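Anyone up for a design puzzle?
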């Protein structure tokens, strides 16, 4: 082994058997920041000039090859050399450059690898071009080199979805030339020496395999339908499908498209979301707090919510003990959980062995004392204070004093539930969203007396469950339902002021929500909210504006889609505007002598956004939410707010006053 040369702070080289092994070490993810690009350029120039060097191996330190361009540099003044310049020099080198992909090679990281003359990967490597998830397209040759290696349809699929693949799939697609489970660098040096002196395989010079236009058309249509008007996937299709033109022309087009998207609003919004997600699990003042170990999770109440939580927990490798009131109810719960696992098997998400292994980790019971081995118990029983406090008192008697107790309540005060126990410090809220095995958001409720390591346990379990945890303080409805209530209230004010349900829904869908608010109400059914309004009718502040339209609808038997009518009519199951609803709305307006007026989509969105953002400001002032980004994440992941708009707080801050 030779001496180490530092080409920059994060790029070093070492000569092994006349091959320059270049290692990128730029924690945490070896991003291709200015220092790394500069170091790579120097290393390549050195390799070209040094007569005793026969080739280059490129690899990364720790778990990553290169995690992509440095996203933190986006929006700052450009620093030379750019990534395309480095990549061009790399591909043009007269000596072989072999990528030894040791871990994640993403975005610009994969683009570096694609320009190498040969790629080998460790079985742990994963690779992809996730740029569309950041509102951009690859900007350093990805759209032009990947199709030359794996064909247009496969490249389209990867680039437009942003999904990453593991080493073996990458091998079968043709992204890498080999997967090596022995010493990767050693193998890469050996390949480099084999390639030295022979003509090099430069990806930009490879012919593009012809693809069936009908297949490409079908795939593109599918991608566009999913993209719902977002630009990056459409641009990715355009760039990939025009790959047969001269390489330099495609590259220039790609770079211009990348730069324009990168400097746009949607990319800024998605970067905000990216960093907010990484920030969310960090609780100020709690750095270094060790979570309690959790292996066995008890779940009380095996209804829809409890079963979903059980499936998520089994999928994450936990042992699960499900409790319900009677043996029959517990057995019904078990069947429901197995049904969900069977669906996962049918869709290929788990295989037969995985299914059997998960079922083996599940047991059910109707006896409290069977929860004794649990490290964490999550209750998902009926949302009633008496029911929950009774359960927590019983749990207190059967589980170890250091086991964590979590309530999944949506609206009750978890401090009151904690107060019913002998060790309130071990109680927190884990507010899942339905279906709990699918929805990513998890509100982690920090109760008044929750111990720091109990909160840390909630966050650690959330991460293992592959959820996105957001910490919230105690307030009715926590972050999500508080903002949602403000949003709903404003939508009803809009109705009274002159907008119709379908106009509000169209504005929301045009903005990027998957479904309008009133269509969602109809799907969920209107009766639960109606019952709640009736319960609180007597205590309502009479001075507050109250919109009666929803009550009138319910009184008329319009309880939603299941009833065949709600905010819309459903002849033959198809959602249609109903003049009867318009008449009810007009009657309510007339009863309050409101002169209605027309609202543009922009006005509708602006009012709804203002209502959400104002409520968000209140939550921040009350200390319920720690950061604006947390509020944005909750609305994006729990309530359908479009991610490419960055969430209500971000979007509101962008709109001119
Ligand atoms: N640039 C700058 N910082 C990055 C980064 C990037 N590309 N990727 C991750 N980070 C930071 C995170 O913000 C986080 O910072 P923090 O510690 O201060 O919170 C830290 O690295 C660790 O990130 P994760 O918590 O996500 O770490 P994981 O180990 O869970 O995951 C990863 C690692 C798979 C690399 C994941 O971070 C990831 O997916 N990163 C984004 C990859 C990506 O999108 N790359 C494309 C960038 S755009 C591009 O390359 C354009 C090109 O075409 C020109």
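Challenge accepted. My sequence:
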């Amino acid at each position: 082994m030779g001496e180490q040369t530092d080409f920059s702070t994060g790029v070093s080289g070492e000569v092994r058997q006349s091959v320059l092994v270049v290692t990128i070490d730029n924690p945490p993810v070896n991003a291709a920041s200015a220092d790394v690009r500069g170091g790579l350029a120097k290393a390549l120039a050195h390799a070209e000039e040094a007569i005793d060097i026969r080739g280059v191996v490129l690899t990364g330190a720790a778990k990553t090859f290169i995690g992509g361009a440095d996203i933190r540099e986006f929006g700052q003044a450009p620093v030379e050399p750019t990534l395309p310049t480095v990549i061009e020099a790399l591909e043009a080198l007269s000596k072989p450059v072999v990528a030894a992909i040791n871990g994640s090679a993403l975005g610009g990281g994969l683009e570096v690898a694609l320009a190498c003359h040969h790629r080998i990967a460790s079985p742990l490597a994963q690779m992809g071009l996730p740029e569309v998830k950041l509102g951009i397209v690859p900007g350093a040759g990805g759209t032009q080199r990947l199709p030359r290696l794996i064909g247009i349809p496969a490249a389209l699929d990867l680039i437009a979805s942003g999904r990453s693949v593991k080493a073996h799939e990458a091998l079968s697609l043709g992204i890498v030339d080999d997967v090596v489970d022995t010493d990767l660098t050693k193998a890469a040096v050996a390949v480099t020496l084999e390639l030295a002196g022979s003509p090099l395989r430069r990806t930009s010079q490879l012919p593009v395999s012809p693809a069936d236009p009908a297949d490409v058309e079908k795939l593109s249509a599918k991608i566009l339908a999913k993209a719902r008007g977002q630009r990056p996937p459409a641009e990715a299709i355009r760039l990939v499908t025009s790959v047969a033109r001269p390489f330099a022309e495609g590259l220039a087009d790609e770079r211009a498209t990348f730069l324009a998207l990168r400097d746009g609003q949607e990319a800024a919004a998605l970067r905000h979301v990216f960093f907010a997600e990484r920030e969310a699990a960090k609780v100020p003042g709690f750095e270094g707090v060790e979570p309690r170990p959790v292996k066995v999770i008890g779940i009380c109440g095996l209804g829809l919510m409890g079963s979903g939580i059980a499936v998520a927990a089994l999928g994450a490798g936990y042992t699960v003990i499900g409790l319900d009131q009677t043996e029959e109810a517990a057995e019904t719960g078990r069947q429901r959980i197995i049904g969900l696992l069977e669906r996962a098997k049918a869709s290929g998400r788990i295989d037969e062995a995985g299914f059997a292994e998960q079922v083996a980790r599940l047991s059910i019971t109707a006896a409290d004392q069977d929860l004794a081995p649990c490290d964490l118990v999550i209750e998902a029983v009926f949302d009633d204070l008496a029911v929950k406090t009774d359960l927590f008192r019983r749990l207190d008697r059967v589980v170890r004093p250091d086991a964590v107790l979590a309530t999944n309540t949506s609206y009750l005060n978890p401090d009151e539930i904690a107060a019913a126990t002998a060790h309130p410090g071990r109680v927190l809220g884990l507010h899942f969203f339905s279906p709990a095995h699918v929805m990513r958001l998890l509100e982690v409720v920090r109760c008044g007396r929750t111990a720091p390591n109990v909160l840390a346990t909630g966050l650690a379990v959330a991460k293992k469950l592959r959820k996105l945890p957001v910490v919230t303080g105690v307030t009715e409805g926590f972050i999500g339902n508080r903002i949602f209530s403000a949003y709903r209230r404003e939508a009803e004010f809009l109705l009274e002021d002159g907008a119709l349900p379908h106009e509000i829904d169209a504005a929301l869908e045009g903005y990027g929500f998957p479904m309008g608010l009133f269509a969602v109400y109809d799907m969920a059914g209107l009766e639960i909210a109606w019952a709640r309004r009736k319960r609180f009718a007597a205590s309502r502040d009479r001075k507050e504006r109250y919109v009666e339209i929803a009550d009138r609808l319910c009184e008329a038997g319009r309880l939603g889609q299941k009833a065949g009518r709600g905010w819309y009519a459903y002849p033959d199951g198809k959602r249609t505007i109903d003049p009867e609803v318009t008449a009810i709305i007009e009657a309510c307006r007339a009863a309050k002598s409101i002169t209605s007026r027309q609202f543009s989509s922009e006005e509708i969105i602006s009012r709804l956004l203002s209502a959400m953002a104002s409520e968000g400001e209140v939550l921040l002032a009350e200390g319920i939410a720690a950061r604006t980004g947390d509020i944005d994440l909750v609305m994006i992941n729990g309530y359908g707010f479009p991610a490419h708009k960055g969430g209500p707080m971000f979007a509101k801050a962008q709109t001119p006053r």
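A detail worth pointing out: Residues 27 and 117 are 26 Å apart (CA to CA).
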